[in-house]
Design goal:
Length: 501
Amino acid sequence: MPAKKTSAASKPTAPPARELLFGDLWEYDPAPESAPAFIDDRYPLFIGGEFTAPKSKRYFDSLSPRDESRLTRIADGGKADVDAAYAAATKAFPGWSAMPGAERGKYLFRIARLLQDRAREFAVAETLDGGKPIRESRDFDVPMAAAHFFYHAGWADKLAYLAPGRVPRPLGVAGQVIPWNFPLLMLAWKIAPALAAGNTVVLKPAETTSVTAMKFATILRDAELPPGVVNLVSGGRETGAAVVTHPGAAKVAFTGSTGVGKWIQHALAGTGRRLTLELGGKAANIIFDDAPLDQAVEGVINGIFFNQGHVCCAGSRLLVQESVAETVVRKLEIRMRSLRTGDPLDKNTDVGAINSQGQLEKIRELVRAGIDEGARIHQPACKLPERGWYFPPTLFSGVTMSQRVAREEIFGPVLSILTFRTPAEAVEKANNTAYGLSAGVWTDKGSRVFKIASELKAGVVWANTYNKFDPASPFGGYRESGFGREGGRKGMLEYLSLEAP
Ligand code: NAD
C-alpha cells in the first residue's frame, strides 16, 4: 500500500521538550540516616597507643555544620604533645620497620576490615562532623578509605618490586597534616602508604573535622597495632606547624591550602627532609562541540557539586566550545533545578552543608566579586535550612579570564563558565592558571583526548568522566598545586629511600 502523504500543514509537531522539575516543588518521604555515630563528649589525643589528655589542657568545641550544634570537644595539642607523639613514633620505628612486610600487611588488612565493619557509624559521624551528604560519606569516603588500606596492605610485602635493583628503606617518622574536606579519606591516603613502607606516623587532622580521625584511633587499638606506630594529635594551625617543623620528622606530607604549603616549603628548606605537598586547584573541565552533551552535563554537575565543591580537584572552571555554549548552559541550569540542597543526613540530599562559617564567608565574598565584576549569576530556587551553613548551587556564565571567579579557588558549589573557539585556545585558557592539579576533557574523538591531555599541565586528566579515584592511581599536582604523588607505586616511593644493594 502506498504510504499516505502528509501535507506540511498536517505534519505532527514534536511535543515540547519536557523538563523534570524536582527542587522544592515536591517532597520526598523523609529519609534520614539513622545509624548511631557514637561520638564521645570529648576526644583527647592518641599517643603511644593510649588516649592521652593534652598536656596543654586545652580543648575546643567542634560544631556540626548541619545545624551549628556542638558535636564534641577536641583536644588542642600543644608543642609538648607533639614532642610526646614524635617520641612515641621514634620509639616504635625500629620494631615496625624491621617487621616482615607480610606481618605489617596483616595489620593494614585488619584496619581495612574493621573500618568496613563500622562503615555506617563512620559515615554518619563524617557527615555530622563535616557536612557532606550521607550518600557521599557512605558510598565514597568510607569505602575508599578502606580501599586504601586494602590496597597498601598488598604493597607491604612487595616493596622489593617497587624499584628493581634498588633496596627500599623506610624513612623514619612521617609528620602528616590533613584538611577538612575528606577527613577520613585523607587520613587513609597518608597513613596507609606510610605504614606499608615501614614508617611510623604523627598525624594532625583539621580542626573542624577531627571526629573520624579520633574514632579511627579505636580501630587502631582494636587492630592491636603496636603502640606508637600511629599517633594522632588534634589541634589548629600552631599544632600543625609544630608537626611539620619537628626535628623528629624524616618526611612531611601536607594536604591543604597553597598558602600554608608555601610556608611549609620555606620552613623545611635546607633541612634535607622529604616533603610532599598536595595543595589547591582551579581545574578546567573542557567540553568540545562533538561531546555527548547530556553525559558531559552530568560530569560537570558531579565535577563541581560533589562534596559542595570542597574538592581540590573540582572542575570549577568550565570551558565550553562557543558553538554549543548556549545549549550547555541551558542544560546545566535545568539540571541544577533538580539538585537538592539541605540536611546532609537526608539520603536524598545532593549538596550538603558548607564545612564552616569561615568557609561560607569566603564563598560569599568570591560570589559577590563575581557579580561585581560582571559575570551572570544563576542559582536555582531552593529553600535552605534555617540553621546550619548552606550555600545554593551557583553558576556564573559569561566569565572572563581576568575575573576572580575564574582565577581563585572558591572551594564551594560555584561553577564559572568560559568559552573557547579552537582546541589551541582551550588548552591555553586551561593552562592559564597558577595551579595544575586536575582537568577534564569531553569529546567524541579519542585522538583529541590524547592530544589535549598531553598538552594540559595537570596531574590528573579525566576523559569523558570526572572525579574518578582509585588507590592504585597516583594523584598530585604541578606548580602551585604542589608536588609529589599519593596512591599507586609512585605514592609508595614517596615514603621510601632507594639505596644501592
Ligand atoms: P589549610 O591549609 O588552611 O589547612 C590544612 C591543614 O593544615 C589543617 O589541618 C590546618 O590546621 C593545618 N595548618 C594550618 N596552618 C598550618 C601551618 N602553618 N603549618 C602546618 N599546618 C597548618 O587548608 P584547608 O582550608 O583546611 O583546606 C582546603 C585547601 O586544601 C584547599 O586549598 C584545597 O584545594 C586543599 N586540598 C588539596 C588536596 C590535594 O590533594 N591537592 C586535597 C584536599 C584539599
